[in-house]
Amino acid sequence: MRVLLVEDEPEAAQFVKKGLEENGFQVVVAHDGESGFRWACDVEFDLLVLDRMLPGMDGSEICRRLRAKGLTTPALMLTARDSIDDRVSGLESGADDYLSKPFAFRELLARLRALARRTDNRASSNKIEACGMCLDLLTRRVSIGEHKVDLSAKEFALLEFFLRHPDQVLSKTVLVEQVWGYDFEHQSNVVEVYVRYLRQKLDPHFLSSCIETVRGVGYRLLAQTQVHEA
Questions:
Q1: Smallest Cα–Cα separation from 27: which of 45, 11, 12?
Q2: pLDDT tens-digit map of 137-195
Q3: Among 130, 187, 156, 126, which residue's Cα sits nearest to residue 21?
Q4: Terminal CA-to-CA distance of the chain, rounded, Å?
Q5: What is the pTM (predicted TM-score) of this model?
Q6: Domains of the chain listed by start with CATH number
Q7: Are 137 and 126 in contact (CB under 8 A)?
Q8: 2-6/47-51 β-pairing
Q9: Residue 28 is inside which H or E element, if any?
């Protein structure tokens, strides 16, 4: 599940990002309102976490503009202000929930999970089934036929992105931006490493490798790869 976190305090942003990633979320961080708004417009996210007070454009304005554009992504507003007027203002801008600072991380996590359940209340919407695999986004379980496959949080996130784009050639830059959420450095081999991890865990269940290397470009998850019969 992909989360956009817009938070201008570096320590707070790192704390929330680390905690969410440890719980299986993919997190992109923006440190000001303008860049946060652009991220929300350009990339599809499942949840937004917006600080109320931001440089350039505050969280309420981000939410208001996104709703005006027709984006309905669930948004949780964070704020150091806890007056009724502030909470009402945040909710009226289009936020779906409101959490005052300081907060316990487990409460933030519970509220985000509740927002996710509220919007994905159909069982089918919580699963991705493609290429002979099934990903359950709530339990974080992967199955290939009758077999269960154990993946780390980043392996799961990478496979989820592949499964949302079967048979598409995905560049290393796109994979890093979408799965790791930071600018790609050409000397980094993080994509190669995690593709290798996925192949080691997935390929034994298929007649041939399910992830194809497109030389000089990136990778493609093959939709027609045949599963080994149980």
A1: 45
A2: 778 889 998 889 999 888 998 998 898 888 888 888 888 877 876 544 544 688 999 99
A3: 156
A4: 30
A5: 0.56
A6: 2-119 (3.40.50.2300), 124-221 (1.10.10.10)
A7: yes
A8: parallel
A9: strand 26-30
Task: Tell me what the mean pLDDT of segment 43-50 comes to.
Answer: 90
Q: 112-140: per-residue pLDDT in tens? A: 988 887 765 444 457 888 888 998 877 88
Tell me the two tokens of residue 135: 């990903």
* Residue 96: Cβ-neighbour burial (10 angstroms; 0-12, 13-18, 19+): buried
Half-sphere exposure of 148 (CA within 13 A, CB side): 5
The H or E element spanning position 4 is strand 2-6
Q: Give the separation between CA 117 and CA 74, rounded to whole angstroms.
A: 11
